[in-house]
Design a protein that fits this description.
Length: about 130
């Protein structure tokens, strides 16, 4: 239990750090709201579709859809990915188990996205 809580906090701080470094966002607890404000209505709709799918227990399917829209030349999709992974990181361990997903997969997903966008050096912030 302690290890999972630690990983959950580590993931949250990683997302927060990336948001600060890449997008200049760092207001205690407000970075997600500020990042959402930078999205268009269509992008917010896409994020809502992904999070609703994940909320229904279909995290793997939601992540696959996310991967389909990632575009290295469009930082909006990086924002979507960070917001998506931050959202699913808030699930408790039982929900993740039922969805056949893990905190390690959340961490790995963030690292993979950062590498895809050319920020692989930031993945050193995580223990992999």
């Amino acid at each position: 239990m302690f290890e999972q809580d630690y990983i959950m906090r580590l993931i949250h701080e990683m997302v927060r750090t990336v948001m600060k470094l890449l997008f200049g966002l760092d207001e205690d607890g407000e970075e997600e709201v500020r990042l959402l404000d930078t999205l268009t209505e269509d992008d917010r709709g896409r994020l809502l579709e992904l999070t609703n799918l994940a909320d229904s227990g279909k995290i793997n399917q939601a992540e696959n859809k996310l991967c389909d829209v990632l575009n290295r030349d469009d930082t909006v999709t990086l924002k979507l990915a960070l917001l998506f992974y931050n959202h699913i990181n808030q699930y408790d361990g039982d929900f993740l188990d039922r969805a056949d997903y893990s905190r390690e997969e959340i961490r790995d997903g963030i690292c993979n996205v950062l590498e895809q966008f050319g920020y692989g050096g930031m993945t050193g912030l995580f223990m992999r």
